[in-house]
User: Fold these one by one.
Assistant:
Number 1:
Amino acid sequence: MSWSFFIDESGQDQRASPYEVLAAFGVEDRRIWPLIRQLSDAQAHFFGMRLFEAYGREAKAQKLLNAKTYRLAGQMPPFDPAARTRLAHEALKDGANPTRERLTALGQAKIAYCRFALQLARRQNAQVFATIVPRAAPRPEDAEALRKDYAYLFERVFYFLNGLEDEPMGYLVFDEIDRSACHILLGQVSNYFVRTANGRTRARLIIPEPFFVHSDMTTLVQLADIVAYVVSWGVRLGGMNAPARAELAPLSEEVLNLRFARRLTSGEWQSGFKVIKDLRPAGGPRN
């Protein structure tokens, strides 16, 4: 048995998003294909087609769950499921001829799909992890070192794997960015797992060399993207003081239901989420 951890991010442009979030969506290997098939069926149910067929690329959470989606979804009463699917499909297939009904149904379908997708993930015993950084958090000057948010994410994944019976191995699957950035990140991750004491300990259960995939072609990266977006805009934990979008509350609850959490026999609490207010290394320059 092994686990795969699909990793994506939200708010890395440090513009509108209140928090920069690095999220990992973990699922046991034997459950990956059943979950992918269920998500494909769900897209056909809510939209009458696969989202990749509609957009020709990954349907990012920023487009599925932005404020405009909720505004359009709320401009008319909820449609019954059959009518919602028909109108949403028409909106996707005939985008040049939008109507109020079509746009409303499409907004309602996007929100319903995202919530259902998270519920499907919970049925497959998926676990989510996230490191959360305020937009204004101080950042390190050394661009070559692995950032603290990655290190803490790997720490939480290790905690999870270390507490499972038989201690299964974990694979890291990243959304591929440009090739040069992938090489930089690959080197940073390798250095962390090979050259640091914490990294060497965690390499016992986490394969030190990550995989990079095109998110357009990888269904479960989209779930990591949805988790990251909802955490940034909707989930609020201690120390997270930025206002949340109230309309995301139902999705925030679904994400929190997926969050890894464990209380040890010692009474210590392990959580898959970590808020990091300063990305600079301890003892480093503060200028």
Number 2:
Amino acid sequence: MNRKKKLNKLGLHDCFMDKKNPFELFKVWMSKAEKTEINDPNALALATVNSKKQPSVRMVLLKGITNKEFIFYTNLNSRKSSELKANPRASMCFHWKTLRRQIRIDGSISKVPSKVANQYFNSRPYGSRIGAWASIQSTPMISRLDLIKRIEYFKKKYPNSKKVPRPPYWSGWALKANEIEFWLDGDNRIHQRLKYKKIGSKWKKEILYP
């Protein structure tokens, strides 16, 4: 990546552009990542905290974005969902190694409407929809054969690939962002950081020391 391109008025690399709304910049960066990353440019690290203030982190896939929220889907009985129910706040981090860019997002969490969850669930491959029924996510199992048997059971129960209902314990979460930080790798660890913070109904921009 050429670090010698012209800088914007904040003194940052021009890839930071000059957007008032961070969601506009996010979409530009994501579009770039989709062209350069080999696998899953929409993969993100999701951090949650349980009722005992113990943090945990795992990778999930971004499956939707509005002008306010970042959306992902999961089992509502999973560890991540249990922690989000206890503490409906979370952090996300996208890291694109090829681009040497990163985006961090903080915000509050809420479930997506059933209509939205149904629409996304019905767009998934048949095997993924069956898997949502078969997996008792985050609970111990004696053997992987137990999972295979459950998959076969639900395939027989829902043989029609066009008629697999969404499990009541499977849905989506939407993170409503209040802080979004864009990061660009720099030589000698002199990175470039642009942070957006929601103040009322508007976004305030500031640059941070690396």
